[in-house]
Amino acid sequence: MADPALLDPAFDPAAEPVVEARPAAEPVRRRGLLIAVWLLLLVVSLVVATRVGQGGGIGWAELGRAAGTRLGLPVQPLPRLADSLIWDLRVPRVLLAALVGAILAVCGAALQSVTRNALADPYLLGVSSGASTGAVVVVVLGFAGSQLGVTGGAFAGALLSFGLLMLLLRRRGVDSVRIVLTGVVVAELFAALTSLVIMSSGDADSTRALAHWLLGSMAPARWQSVFVCALAAAIGLLVIWSCSAALDGFAFGSDTAASLGIDVRTTRTVLLVTTSLLTAVAVAAVGAIGFVGLIVPHGVRFLAGPSHRLLLPLSAVAGAVFLVWTDAVARVLFAPLEVPVGVFTALIGVPLFLLVLRRRGEL
Asked: pLDDT tens-digit profile of 46-79?
């Protein structure tokens, strides 16, 4: 090919435009659009879910008046009963469902990366089983005079089970396979203890109440539980999100993570402690709700990719939306009978998880 300078004497290479490499704006816009859409969906879900439930539906006008009263706007206040129905029952329940869904989804995403196990979820470490044992013991011993008693017992049981897990992992170190196997052992131990305590109580009413709690229910939601879960979620999810780069490395194995300059042992321990404490708070508040931390991260990965800097916040929002709607269905589908929300998460989660396995070629 002829030299351009020979074809055109006025040709000046320095004057030619230089094509510079620019960062692709499309992925950034796509990520921003995904986050905006899910946040909008969460807000809509919270408002709509507040309107439905036992005790009659809440109209838009009543909901607006209740919100306006709390904001100090010049609106006519609702009757005390209607106002209490919204602010003491509906709003705490919806917010707690969103917080618990966000906690479980983010913990599931983190544990799936730390353990490199697609089946990992927040209950993998036995924390849920320990919380169940603590709650059952409190009820059977007669110390559950208030919801705080059940919550305190569940949290103590969760910490006990996690302490046992870390004690068993202490000597041989913490690696992916050992975490999974030890977590299964701890979970089975506390599940057996829970069954033993329930069977030894011999009280049909207590057994029925415990079975309802063990399946997970938002019915006990109150503002105190909302504040505790909100504080735990704000701190815990921020800690997990700050480890996004480490989680990306863990997804390719410990050796790859170490080659990237990540302190594998310390980071893994921090993530295990954080996810366990968050799970303990969630289970203590509402009982054991399965499949949220298992299904939601897989769905978000399909939409947003594997990068944890985006995966974690989207999992939090998607988990919140999923549990808010699932709880709304649990409230109204068989009204006035209220089915524990854990039943519906399992009914929805099983076919979705089979679909995920099929797409991954593992089924």
From this structure: 999 888 766 556 777 787 777 777 777 777 877 7
- Of 270, 339, 326, residue with least CA distance to 296: 326
Calculated CA dihedral for residues 247, 190, 133, 267, nearest 10 degrees:
-20
Give the distance from CA 108 to its chain's centroid.
7
Query: How many whole angstroms separate alpha carbon 158 and alpha carbon 201?
Result: 21
Could you tell me if 256 and 249 are in contact, meaning their C-beta atoms sit under 8 angstroms apart? yes
pLDDT over 90 at 172, yes or no: no
Rounded Cα distance, 111 and 125, in Å: 10
Residue 170 has which token pair?
A: 């202490």
Fill in the DSSP letter of residue 287.
-
Q: Is 292 helix (H, G, I), strand (E, B) or coil?
A: helix
Task: Of 29-33, 115-119, 226-230, give the range with the top mean pLDDT.
Answer: 226-230
246 in Cβ contact with 309 (< 8 Å)? no
What element of type H or E holds 302? helix 292-304
Q: Token pair of 118, please? A: 């697609």
Q: What is the pTM of this model?
A: 0.84
Beta-carbon contacts of 37 under 8 Å, excluding residues fewer than 6 positions away, are: none
Helix (H) or strand (E) holding 207: helix 204-214
Taking CA 204 as the corner, what is the angle to CA 203 and CA 210, rounded to the nearest 5 degrees?
90
Q: Cβ distance 52 to 332 under 8 Å?
A: yes
Task: Pick the closest to residue 222 from 308, 61, 96 (CA basis).
Answer: 96
Compute the 3-state secondary structure of the chain and give helix, strand, coil in percent, each to the nearest 5: 75, 0, 25
How many alpha carbons fall within 13 Å on the CB side of residue 129?
A: 22
How far apart are the C-alpha atoms of 47 and 172, rounded to whole Å?
A: 50
Residue 309 · residue 34 · CB < 8 Å: no
Q: Which residue in this structure is represented by tokens 């989680």? A: 247
Residue with tokens 């997804």: 251
